[in-house]
Amino acid sequence: MVVYALFGVLALVALAPVAIALNASARATALVYSASLMITLIVGTAALLALTGYDGAGSAVTLPLGLPWLGAHFRIDALSAFFLAVINLGGAAASLFALGYGRHEEFPGRVLPFYPVYLGAMNLVLLADDAFSFLVSWEFMSLSSWALVIAHHRVRENLRAGYVYLLMAGFGTLALLLAFGLLAGAQGNYAFDAIRAAHPSTGLAALVLILVLIGAGSKAGLVPLHAWLPLAHPAAPSHISALMSGVMTKVAVYAFVRITFDLLGPPDWWWSLVVLAVGGISAVMGVLYALMQRDVKRVLAYSTIENIGIIFAALGLALAFKAYAMHFAAALALTAALLHVFNHALFKNLLFCGAGAVLSATGERDLEKLGGLIHRMPQTAFVFLIGCTAISALPPLNGFVSEWLIFQAILLSPQLPSWGLKLMVPAVGALLALSAALAGACFVRAFGIGFLGRPRSDEARGAQETDTHSLAAMYALAALCLIAGILPGLFIDTLAPVAQMLTQGRMPVQTGVEWLSIVPIAESRSSYNGLLVFVFMTASGMIAAFAIHRLASDRIRRSIAWGCGYPDPGPLTQYTADSLAQPIRRVFGTLVFSAHESGEMPPPGSTAPARLTVKMRDPVWDTLYAPVADFITYASERLNVLQFLTIRRYLTLVFMALVLLLLVLAIWP
Amino acid sequence: MALIHDLAFQGAQMLLVLLLSPLLTGFVRKVKARLLRRQGPPLLQPYRDLIRLMRKDVVLADNASWLFRVIPYLVFAATWVAASLVPTFRSGLLFSWTADLIAIIALIGSARFFLALAGIDAGTSFGGIGTSREVMIASLAEPAMLMIVFTLALIAGSTQLSTMAAFMNSPEVGLRVSLGLALIALIIVAIAENARVPVDNPATHLELTMVHEAMVLEYSGRHLALIELSVMLKLLLYMSLIACLFAPWGIAAATATPAFVAVGVGAYAAKLAAGGFLLAVFETSIAKMRVFRVPEFLGAALMLALLATLLRFVSGSF
Amino acid sequence: MNKLTFDIAHMLAGSLVLVSFMQLYQDRLSSLINIFALHALVLTASVAWQAFVQHAPHLYITATIAFVFKAVVIPVALRRIVVKLGIHRELDNVVGVGLAMLAGIGLVALSMVVMLRVTAEADPLAREDLAFALSVVLLGLLMMVTRRNAVSQVIGFMSLENGLVLAATGAKGMPLVVEISVAFSVLIAFIVIGIFLFRIRERFDTVDIQALDRFRGERQ
Questions:
Q1: Residues of A in contact with B106 (CB under 8 A)
Q2: In a domain, A185, yes or no
Q3: Domain that holds residue A649
Q4: Residue C94's domain spans which residues?
Q5: Of A501, B184, B270, B276, which residue is most buried, by most CB within 10 angstroms?
């Protein structure tokens, strides 16, 4: 099994030279994306099969690459099979979308070679079974995505985004490197099997946990390490944004789960405290940031932070349950987290594709310049609406199911004995509830301002429906959102081997439940049936429509909208994205962003326009990044002298370093 | 046989909530009018209004999209499904396991999500004002409601409404501090969700003060009728919810004899009448708040609900 | 004691916490005074219930004192002061309501945890009542910290004292002498503060205590 996956990776990587050789012609675009589509589909299906037929062992292979005494270990177990399925599904959708979208690419030569490499690197991270190949693939993934972020390097913002991304990615890898170093111990047992067998001491494990939270968390976009994400994700071409937001953050979640649940040994209860707090805060902060953005791709990027926060909160719960040996509850929380991983990959990919379709149709990402697209792009609007409904956690779509499971897990947590958790869990529950409600507001805003109302610019007025490939990708994702929403039992059962492997517990089998409901604990306690909710809603809506049209009236007249006495107000009198969020900005923003509005009215009689200025500060940037950036600037200016030394001095430096290292080795116990 | 029996009750419940909800709204209006020493419209006026609206032509704004025409049906369907899953006079509804309390709240959330979109669709500023305020209210009311659900679920050990109602009816509930906090929070949330005074005024027609009415300003004819009906259903839903959780007396069990079912129907009618009367008295005795007082009001509900949940977590006996 | 008597005592103590939160929420002075009267009423009910349950007639006197002074005399007097000063419609808040209530929840959680941990072997209900009492005390203090107006600070102080009474009656019942002396000391404190209010008002034309800071040159 693992060998086939490696062949897939090899094929993906081999596409890069082909793309270069074909010199970025239209044929190259079609070839690269259709080949990626095929490969990801095959690998994804194979991974899914491996997951459903998981026998508890998985398959492994060791290649004579990498460190000579170690070799490169690769392995597929339940956890990596699940993530492989998610990632290749996302990759397939993005490739299908790109078959149409990629034709509008201005510089295909800067995208095509890196795209398959990026996909391959993500797959390789999941396959790696020793620290060395894991880190190499991880860095490979970071660098190839960095190249894609700065594909449009003429835009100044993108260069800055790339710079920040490179810094943060390097920082994250450093943290992971240290974490693995600590795990491997002095003997340097870098193979995961050896790490799993050695249980680190409490203090060491705590240190590793913090390092992993920094390393994986910075890639996933946890607050306060999220700063690069809303810059870098939107800067790339839209199908890459979809991959970065929908898929690469999941690789980071995988890294976190792999290390904390699998490699690090039995957890301490306070680990969960840290993870829960970080998750809850990320969820609320992410969606609040999203509500304040105008750029539609940035809205989506910040909403990724929110969803990652939700996932980490659920993982925190799972850790807490695991620490107290409540295996069943741990399995429930972990399943909820993984289901949200899957769901988020679906709808975030869908939404980024939708944003890409809008971008290629209008050339605009600014919500304030869009509007009325539902008339010009009805199909894109329809699928985008499904994505918005799903991400807002509304039944009967899939986002609701995973949040519902997380809430069920929270309701099990009063049995946790520790006082810290008794205070933390309800607080995190409130944060999650708040973030769910705010996400609804955020996507009312994103869809309403972007697609409804009247066009706010000529570009929006002249938009055309997007091409069939893009639509096919989006329809496929939307259909999956619906299927995962109405038949969640299937997906929960598929996740059972993963939960079994990591928590030694499992949820009840769902496929046998009557009427295809899901019953996470017991039927008297809670159950949900997405299928019936869907059927009931459709039926009652249809019956109402039929009865009214038949018995009462079905006539329609068109007329101008009520303008309160002002005839023919222009499109600019509509609510804008900023004004729609103003009440929320006032309620939450003053506290979180120290938002401040000041109005400037011209004197009576003057025809000058009135102005409203809104000032907001980013608390994370101000308190964390700015001081660090200042320090780095300072330090690098100091170190700058090193650039202008003579050869002899350089040699001296090298020599001193060598001697110093030998000395350390000599006095090492 | 039992299945047909249950199915009949489920169907009866669906029809009951649909037919009863305009009466409840009419009753509240009547009591309000009488409190103001007006004669008030007859009790059956809401039915007449609905029928009249359904027969009229729909006048669509020039810019209205297909979504605008679908939304009334979506909103109605979501609200109706939610309302028919709350036990009214008899517990043990056939489909009660389809959606637990969290899902019912989320269904109402879906209705609101789509209605908020409808406010923006026509491309006028009034719809926008309504949507903007509605999402602000919802962003506080929904978490408060979820925390209330958490509290109740932790007390009853279930999020299933039938189980919860049965537990609340049993003697082991007792008086609990967290229940009291949750009740107050629930009342505040219910007032906000149903756009009643002091959060919003269902009778106002001044555009700048409206929230809900501003959102649906562009609706007319059968679309408006459906939305009005959904509003009435939602009022009934919240009253039934409060009744079945905090005053579950008289709800007939799933195995009850016809006599007990009759008692259940009577008790339900009495509870609705009492709830409607209290609502009318409350609404006439209080003034509407400024819009930016509302977040504090709802924030208080959120805090109370959070406190109740916290108490449940810290000690089992609250 | 059977379960219901426990539950009622518990409920009343919880209601006192709830009313403390209402005080935190209400920033209009005249309504605040009403709520304070309600606070005292709940305390009266709670003390009277304890008297009934514990068969301790002297607690009825405590209840009477609480009712007469705190629920009737002081609110009426405060209302007159407020009307006289013309500040009955004034809003008074240093930090936002939401933040104050959030802090309040934190304090309640804190007192719960502290009380339940410290008194692990005591009777479970008495522990929780004590925790409630501590919360009321802390919420009273919080109110004094978050308000600027001297009248609200007086109310905060007196609700703090209500918390102490709740703690004392809930646990075992305190000697009447102590109770009377506490009641009188509060009354005297009230009179002193009342007089001060007038003096401050006369001098600075406001009861905003920031005016005093200004006068001392601590703020500009």
A1: 393-395, 400, 404
A2: yes
A3: 620-667
A4: 3-216
A5: B276
